[in-house]
Design goal:
- With 159 residues, this protein is of the alpha+beta class.
- It has one domain: Transcriptional regulator MraZ domain (Chemotaxis protein chec).
- It is built from six helices and eight strands.
- A six-stranded antiparallel β-sheet has the order 1-7-8-4-3-5. Strands 2-6 form a two-stranded antiparallel ribbon.
- Strand 7 and strand 8 form a beta hairpin.
């Protein structure tokens, strides 16, 4: 099991490569230290997963989606659109596939954000325009999401 945490700013070179941070490289499982899987994520980013986590995602898609349901097929098609296995070069750089780069990133600087079992790749400007740290919004989201979900945990409601 992988646990990616942290935020790293990377430059995209003229060939569309980024240097994968050493911290994230150390967190890759031994069998996945030479490659990762990259795909379109939610909210306008790309997702990067180690092979075990990619296999788990694919298994979840297979078991959760009904191939006879049009919305399920479309969701799977969009999720896997442009997905690729990416190998690192000898300098631990990864090439962002052109299709994904053009459609999602299209910036010369990116953030890699560890999200526990995967990494989000964001264009720096796009991330800044969408994500301002808002403590009140975080409090409200936490309350909305977890108030009824965690047995025995009491989250105070505003009165």
């Amino acid at each position: 099991m992988v646990n990616f945490f942290g935020k790293h700013k990377c430059k995209v070179d003229d060939k569309g490569r980024i240097s994968f941070p050493a911290k994230f490289l150390r967190q890759l499982p031994a069998e996945a230290d030479k490659s990762v899987f990259i795909s379109i994520g939610f909210d306008g980013c790309l997702n990067i997963r180690a092979k075990p986590e990619w296999d788990l995602l694919i298994q979840q898609l297979r078991t959760s989606l009904n191939p006879f349901n049009r919305k399920h097929r479309e969701f799977k098609r969009l999720m896997l659109h442009g997905a690729e296995e990416i190998s690192f070069d000898s300098n631990h750089r990864m090439l962002i596939p052109k299709l994904l780069f053009k459609e999602v990133v299209a910036e010369k600087e990116v953030y890699l954000l560890g999200q526990d079992d995967y990494i989000e790749l964001w264009g720096v400007q796009k991330f800044a325009s969408l994500h301002q740290v808002d403590v009140d919004a975080l409090d409200k989201l936490g309350s909305d999401i977890f108030a009824d979900e965690l047995p025995g945990m009491q989250i105070a409601e505003d009165e």
